[in-house]
Amino acid sequence: MEFKEVSSQTDTSLSSYGDGGFRIGELRIKGSVLITPKGYYPWDVKDVSITYESLARILDQKDDIDILLIGTGENMFFLDKALKGKLETGNFSVDVMATGAAARTYNILLSEGRKVAAALIAVD
Hints:
Number of strands: 9
CATH topology: Hypothetical Protein Mth938, Chain: A
Structural class: alpha+beta
Number of helices: 3
């Protein structure tokens, strides 16, 4: 999967998740994904090894984001304090939760017109 630009952030709503990927609209995405107000990208992260650098595509658009949701896979885990602190120096809040909860929260915030981004680890 390559970068998919969108004309409206509503084009990035999640139709489903699981089976190793996501459905954004009618398009099936295999693997983990980064979603921003401008589009979505493949994300090489497959486990809890999230780094500041792995979130670079989202961070490049930090002025367009109010909330960053991080989906950590099947289970929720806490980000390293230094990483979370570094992320929160931007103009947005960071919420970490299991991928299922992050996907559902993403759609709710999107429907409210919020400027939201998501980094979602794929689940089976």
